[in-house]
């Protein structure tokens, strides 16, 4: 007798194993909440906890506010008005995402420092010496500025696409009713773009909570820095687990607020054919103001730091031996390529499982794995290390039997780092793959099966070739994210294993800002290329 | 009896009501059956159940003495030898016409494959189109490729889901004739779904009419003739139509 689900089983087993592996380490964090607390923890709770909770709150709230202001105003300008350079600005305003905030942070610090371009120009050319405190960016407001500049594109891009897709009649009818542009903005545009603003802003908030590079470099105490300090400074992993658990609680709270704010209401087009919004052409000073505004933001968030990085790279070129530099490149490409490939393979398995199963559980289970992206790197680092040390302890007899000289094998290997990447970035790859599956639907799969091919053969002959676009874009997105990643790489890499981003961070931390530029520029260059690629790719897809 | 469908019940997992309720039908070899019914009446569901793309709650399907499903067997779609032409054709966009047709012929030897490909291309009169990709074909040509692909592996039974719905009126007429010729020439037992009564009258040996997941009429097209008004009338209002036929059955 043929078993009812013979084919489905292999995929189900694979998918369930992947989902558990992705989710399990986070459970170690939750379990950490219930271990008895030690002195450190009591001390921290009493004296310092509130300090970095406050900092984290201020950072996230202020950054969310400013990214919404800048992102939404730019999105509105681009979506509704025509002015010189609009077409260029439309996609160029996404470019700041190619600069990881910590690179932006040390670049701005370098530019504003005593020996940096701004103070030296003022001194040497204009003979002006200002109070150095005026140029001090290494503080909380400085960190807010850095986050705003390099993260606002999340709000901008999501909102801009959303506004451009809105039916013209919706906004036109407001105008016909005699409302001016400001009233239109506040009474129509703001409410209808609420969902996209919330989506963009929550990405920003999660990025801020995840960040380690900026706050560490600027000396601002947050949840993330506290986790690492307790762990390495005090050697107290139990307390750092407790901190991580609190941070996770904080993130879950934010996700819940997001859900609540989004509400159940979905704004969707009531007509199937959406007429794009006709642009209003600006002229005179209004046009100049619009173009100027776009360029000021773009310069602060992209052109100026990139120019500075290029300048430093030219100045220091050759001081880092080529062989050494190439080994960082090789390491970066290796871990990013490996993690991205594994993530895509896992995502394909989980995605195929998700569309085979019916019912709620099948839809919910894959969603669980996506949580990883909301969990800050510091938490994942703690979770993965705890899990791997446990695993090594469990495997110790095997190591002894195999003649290893140590019983810490997996927890000091590259496996640890790659596992952490997979947990953190699985959602990025999965979203892309899931969209791919959604786009091809189930009809081609069904057709293939009625032609005699089983689920697995169908997957290789129909699904995979048809999802080439989704696979490539998912791979590139994960690759770039791993390339830029800082806390996990810094903490979990094996001894003597350096990547472009860890090296850039180390040079910058040692005040060798110029030496850091070469690796940084390469990261920014690759990311910017990917963004341009996606923009063109998306444009073609939309046609 | 060639095909026997007995007491099939089914509901979608997220739905309250039954999509199909006690569906029973026996089909002779070579017979062309039409399933007629309004949108949402369960027509596609019948085909999906027969093809094995959905799992019935209860019921039995036997084709040529082989049990495809009953309360302890469920044969996967790829093991059933049932061909299907999808509502939107589902031609693989990354494969050429020839590759689409060869897709289901993987069990044959090379020479055999080539011969069969030529045969079915001739059957649907598309000999010169083998190298084209689906998007380079007209709607009618795509439909014929979909039929050729489904017919090629010699299925016991072929299912067609609204084969004419994507075509303009003129093309519909032409394709309808073509389909009838193709089905009869190949002597394939077939079930096709339509919401257009005219299709059913021209093509079918027997008509099954569905309403809310239940059969409310089975019979020859001529038995339904009184409701068939004039050529060109697309969809007679179902209300009067159903009453007459219910009376007809009683
Ligand atoms: N995947 C699904 N999940 C839940 N309900 C479904 C699903 N597919 C169909 N249904 C429901 O089952 C019923 C029968 O659907 P079916 O697709 O068989 O109708 P149909 O007669 O083919 O309609 P049409 O002429 O519009 O194609 C409908 O009420 C439909 O809403
Ligand atoms: Mg249908």
Structure report:
The complex is a heterodimer of chains A (543) and B (250). By secondary structure, chain A is an all-alpha fold. Chain A has two domains: 31-310, MetI-like (MetI-like fold), CATH 1.10.3720; 317-509, MetI-like (MetI-like fold), CATH 1.10.3720.10. Chain A contains 24 helices and two strands. Chain A has helices at 6-32, 39-47, 49-80, 86-92, 101-112, 117-126, 140-165, 168-176, 181-192, 194-210, 213-218, 223-233, 237-262, 284-316, 322-356, 360-370, 377-402, 414-440, 443-450, 455-466, 468-484, 487-492, 500-509, 513-542, and strands spanning 81-82, 280-281. A two-stranded parallel ribbon of chain A has the order 1-2. Chain A is globular. In chain A, 44% of the residues are buried. Chain B has a domain at 3-81 and 155-244: 3-Layer(aba) Sandwich (Rossmann fold). The interface between A and B is medium-sized, with 22 and 33 residues. The complex binds adenosine-5'-triphosphate and magnesium ion (MG). Chain A: Pfam families: BPD_transp_1. Chain A: Residues 53-262, 329-535 form the ABC transmembrane type-1 domain. Chain A: This is ABC transporter permease.
């Amino acid at each position: 007798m043929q078993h009812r689900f013979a084919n489905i089983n292999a995929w189900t087993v694979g998918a369930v194993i992947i989902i558990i592996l992705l989710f399990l380490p986070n459970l170690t964090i939750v379990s950490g909440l219930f271990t008895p607390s030690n002195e450190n923890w009591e001390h921290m709770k009493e004296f310092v906890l509130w300090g970095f909770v406050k900092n984290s709150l201020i950072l996230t709230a202020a950054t969310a506010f400013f990214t919404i202001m800048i992102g939404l105003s730019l999105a509105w300008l681009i979506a509704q008005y025509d002015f010189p350079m609009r077409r260029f600005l439309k996609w160029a305003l996404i470019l700041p995402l190619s600069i990881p905030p910590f690179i932006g942070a040390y670049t701005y610090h370098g530019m504003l420092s005593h020996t940096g371009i701004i103070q030296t120009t003022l001194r040497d050319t204009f003979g002006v010496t200002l109070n150095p405190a005026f140029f001090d960016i290494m503080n909380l407001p400085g960190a807010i500025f850095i986050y705003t500049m390099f993260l606002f594109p999340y709000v901008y891009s999501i909102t801009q696409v959303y506004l451009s897709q809105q039916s013209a009649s919706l906004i036109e009818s407001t105008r016909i009713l005699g409302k001016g542009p400001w009233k239109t903005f506040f009474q129509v545009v703001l409410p209808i773009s609420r969902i996209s603003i919330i989506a963009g802003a929550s990405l920003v908030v999660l990025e801020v909570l995840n960040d380690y590079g900026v706050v560490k470099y600027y000396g601002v105490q947050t949840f993330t820095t506290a986790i690492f300090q307790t762990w390495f400074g005090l050697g107290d992993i139990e307390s750092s687990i407790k901190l991580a658990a609190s941070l996770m609680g904080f993130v879950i709270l934010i996700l819940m607020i997001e859900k609540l704010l989004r509400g159940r209401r979905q704004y969707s087009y009531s007509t199937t054919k959406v007429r794009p919004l006709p642009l209003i052409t600006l002229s005179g000073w209004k046009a100049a103001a619009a173009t100027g505004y776009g360029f000021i933001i773009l310069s602060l968030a992209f052109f100026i730091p990139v120019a500075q990085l290029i300048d430093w790279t030219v100045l220091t070129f050759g001081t880092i031996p080529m062989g050494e530099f190439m080994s960082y490149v090789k390491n970066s490409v290796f871990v990013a390529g490996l993690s991205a490939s594994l993530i895509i393979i896992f995502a394909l398995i989980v995605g195929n499982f998700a569309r085979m199963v019916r019912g709620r559980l099948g839809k919910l289970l894959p969603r669980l794995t996506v949580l990883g992206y909301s969990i800050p790197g510091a938490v994942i680092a703690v979770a993965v290390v705890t899990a791997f040390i446990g695993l090594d302890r469990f495997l110790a007899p095997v190591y002894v039997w195999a003649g290893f000289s140590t019983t810490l094998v997996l927890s000091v290997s590259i496996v640890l780092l790659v596992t952490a990447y997979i947990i953190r970035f699985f959602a990025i790859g999965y979203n892309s793959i899931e969209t791919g599956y959604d786009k091809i639907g189930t009809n081609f799969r069904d057709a293939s099966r009625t032609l005699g091919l089983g689920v697995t053969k169908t997957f290789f002959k129909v699904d995979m070739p048809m999802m080439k676009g989704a696979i490539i874009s998912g791979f590139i997105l994960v690759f770039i994210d791993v390339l830029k990643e800082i806390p996990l790489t810094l903490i979990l890499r094996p001894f003597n294993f350096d990547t472009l981003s860890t090296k850039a961070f180390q040079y910058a931390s040692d005040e060798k800002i110029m030496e850091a530029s070469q690796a940084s520029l390469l990261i920014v260059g690759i990311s910017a290329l990917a963004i341009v690629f996606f923009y063109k790719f998306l444009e073609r897809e939309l046609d | 009896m060639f095909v026997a469908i007995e007491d099939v019940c089914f509901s979608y997992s997220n739905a309250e009501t039954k999509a199909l309720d006690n569906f029973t039908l026996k089909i002779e070899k070579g017979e062309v059956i039409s399933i007629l019914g309004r949108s949402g009446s369960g027509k596609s569901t019948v085909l999906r159940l027969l093809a094995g793309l959905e799992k019935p709650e209860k019921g039995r399907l036997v084709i040529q003495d082989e049990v495809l499903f009953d309360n302890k067997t469920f044969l996967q779609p790829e093991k059933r030898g049932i061909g299907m032409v999808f509502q939107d054709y589902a031609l693989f966009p990354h494969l050429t016409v020839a590759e689409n047709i060869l897709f289901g012929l993987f069990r044959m030897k090379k020479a055999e494959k080539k011969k069969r490909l030529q045969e079915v291309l001739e059957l649907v009169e598309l000999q010169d189109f083998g190298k084209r990709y689906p998007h380079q074909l007209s709607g009618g040509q795509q439909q014929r490729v979909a039929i050729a692909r489904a017919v090629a592996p010699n299925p016991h039974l072929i299912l067609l889901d609204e084969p004419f719905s994507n075509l303009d009126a003129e093309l519909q007429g032409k394709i309808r004739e073509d389909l009838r010729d193709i089905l009869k020439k190949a002597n394939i037992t077939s079930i096709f779904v339509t919401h257009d009564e005219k299709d059913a009258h021209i093509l079918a040996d027997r008509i099954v009419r569905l309403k809310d997941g239940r059969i409310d009429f089975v019979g020859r097209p001529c038995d339904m003739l009184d409701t068939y008004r004039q050529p060109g009338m697309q969809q007679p209002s179902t209300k009067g139509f159903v009453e007459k036929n219910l009376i007809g059955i009683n």
